[in-house]
Amino acid sequence: MPFLRHSVALAVVSLLLPLAAAASVQHGFTGAWAPNAANGFENAATGGGTFTVSVSADHSTLTAFIENPANLNFGSFFLQNYGYTQTPPILLPTGMVSYDYQINYFSALGLVSTFDDFGNNTTVVSGSSLSGSSSINYAGGYFGYFGINIRGFDVNGNPGVASATVTLSNFSAPAAVPEPTPIALVALGLAALAAARRRSR
Fold this sequence. Notes:
Elements: H1 2-22, E1 25-27, E2 41-45, E3 50-55, E4 62-68, E5 75-81, E6 95-106, E7 111-116, E8 121-125, E9 129-138, E10 143-153, E11 159-160, E12 162-174, H2 180-200
Antiparallel strand pairs: 1-12, 2-5, 3-4, 4-12, 5-10, 6-9, 6-12, 7-8, 7-10, 10-11
Helix pairs in contact: 1-2
């Protein structure tokens, strides 16, 4: 019987530990990773451009619309979290952050020059899209989802308005705090294991 109790307790612990580990990762733009002022989040546009951000109702997808007015310079847009600049500082959870992205480009002049933090540095035809995945091992301090520069122009190089829609999905990041239920269950399993050991003596 002591052996049986010991085996059952070990089985409980082995089943619950993965649950505790899973609780340390969150999926979606919520909690500490929600793009809001409470988390020190901000977006910026240079050159008089516009930048709007929205998150789907289930927090699974973030969509940013950016537009660069007609000028000779690239419009620069930065979707960033400056959590550490707040007073008191907002501490973002550290660890691996990953997500998929898709960028759709538009310009009435037909062409868009672009370069961004995803490694794209190219010219595309209006209506084109680029997609891929991004990941970073976030160690604290400044965090930026992305920076992107766009400029519209025609076949003769004359500049004009350009816009882009950036969609981020399949977002995963370290959770702010572990979920309490799995941790409590693991503690319960460990207590059961300790009790089984005491009884077996």
